[in-house]
Amino acid sequence: MTQLKELTQQGLWTNNPALVQLLGLCPLLAVTATVTNALGLGLATMFVLIGSNITVSLVRDYVPKEIRIPVFVMVIATFVTVIQLLINAYLFELYQALGIFIPLIVTNCAIIGRAEAYASKNPWHWSAFDGLMMGLGFTAVLLLLGGIREVIGNGTLFAGAELLLGEWAVHLRIDVFTVDYPLLLAILPPGAFIVMGFIIALKNLIDHYREQRAQQPDKVVTRARVTAQ
Amino acid sequence: MSFTIATSPHTHQRRTTQQVMRWVYLCMIPGVAALTYFFGWGVWLQMLLALITAIFTEAACMWLRGRSARFAWRDHTAIVTALLLAVSIPAYAPWWIIVIGTSFSIVVVKHVYGGVGQNLFNPAMAGYVLLLISFPVQMTSWPVPQSLAQYTINFADSVSLVGSGYTQSGYNMEQLRTGVDGATMATPLDSVKTDLSRSLTPTEALAKPIFNDIAGIGWMWVNLAFLLGGLALIYLKIISWHIPGGLLLGLAVPSILMSLFAPGQAIGLSLHLLSGATMLGAFFIATDPVTAATSNRGRLYFGLLIGFLTFVIRTWGGYPDGIAFAVLLANMCVPVIDRYTQPIAYGHGGRS
């Protein structure tokens, strides 16, 4: 049970692939202009991460150490191809919105990083859970980034969610505010870098406060008497 | 044998950041006066809004950082940032343009990096670029010189225009940009660039009424006024000649070469030097002591780089003027420039 808790905490917070390891920034920054795109890419990445972690973990005893990286890359590329074809077949409009960034999941360092650092050394069920948690952590950051950018740059939330979730999701769309001239910078790549910087700063700030709170009980100063009675 | 002790040859003049900054904005007076004469009162409203925003955002940042706001106000750098941004944007842009731009300059470009002296990018120009790529329509609605405009703008109209987007008689910016012949007028650089891309020759492109002066009515005098203020800054030893000299040289040499070898596509030397933001950029913006290179040789290279990049952007880029982008790009190169132009201290090794 402690292992599960440890993996959850690692994936979602202390070792979050997007906020701490800063891996996979290319898709992270490029497609998070809206929540829908962020969610689509996040789910795709999570699927690839779980699949590749399980496969790598299963074959880890049969792969010679010298060629493990090419083998891992082949495994990841296979899963990316699978997810790409699936999205192309069932969610064609999302496929067009995400464009080149679906095949580019293969270059997401977070995935090969987990294959190398965790899945190649641990049994498959732990690896699967690790993939799930890392994927969730990545998706959470994508969603947050996409949400902030969509609100600032467009004034909406969940616009176009029906591309991903089906017809009913049209009603998810929230118009936060309407302006004649949205702040275009937020949905352009520089905006992604700036918002990402602020999110990382926020995470560090929270960590800082937690650390301070954890240390506080030790700071009880007992007054020493230095003068003679 | 006598050992005479000579006093140190170091002269020391106490000059605080506040004094330097005060001279910078005092030397902007001729340029602002020229802007007011040719384009009306809008620039004063923008400066006022920018100052108010800068003072409040700076205080908010200092409060968040747990420091005294008065300490930050006292060095006057925020005032210079605000004023530079205010004179850079179109004079009748809506009020929220300058508020967003100044807040971004102060909060993200200056204080996120650690406040005065720590910022990597020129705050005013980073704010300008944010505005230009976010609000292209408002940021390219340059007013027409009053002598050519169909409708003149008085002070009450300026207030109404900046506040609501309409003058008291109900004209919007698009209508105000029409000349006496009823056609919308572009800035000199924009007009020439558009005409050259339509395969007109430079002579044809320069045949418009806006070019009755050498480099565009209004714009030429605005640039000359900023040149005057800039020369005063050099005379007062607030800035050295290296950055403005390098910038003007980096802009002039390629434009002369272009005029000689490809006259059909050349914008021309006088237009390059006396239009757009050239003089403001050369003497007031690129010379920001924080984001420019440190040594004199480095400053020269820094200036040359900005001038050349401006030429490239104006000639082949998507925007009619490129000072802001060139300054930001050169800001990125400053660590490299500083590394390779570091002077050798006496007694600490050398080339031999």
Quick summary of this structure?
Chain A has 229 residues and is mainly alpha-helical. In chain A, 65% of the residues lie in helices and 2% in strands.
Description:
Chain A: It is an enzyme of class 7 (translocase). The complex is a heterodimer of chains A (229) and B (352). With 229 residues, chain A is mostly helical. Chain A has one domain. Chain A has helices at 2-14, 25-30, 35-59, 68-90, 92-98, 109-117, 124-154, 162-165, 184-187, 189-215; strands at 156-157, 174-175. In chain A, helix 3 packs across helix 4, helix 4 (68-90) packs across helix 5 and helix 4 crosses helix 6 (109-117). The radius of gyration of chain A is 22 Å and the shape is flat. Chain A starts with a helix and ends in a 14-residue tail after the last helix. Chain B is mostly helical and 352 residues long. Chain B has a domain at 186-338. Chain B has helices spanning 17-26, 29-39, 42-64, 69-74, 77-88, 95-111, 123-134, 136-139, 155-164, 173-176, 188-197, 202-205, 219-235, 242-261, 269-274, 278-285, 296-316, 323-340. In chain B, helix 1 packs parallel to helix 5 (77-88), helix 6 crosses helix 7 and helix 13 runs parallel beside helix 16. Chain B starts with 16 loop residues before the first helix and ends in a 12-residue tail after the last helix. The mean pLDDT of chain B is 87.
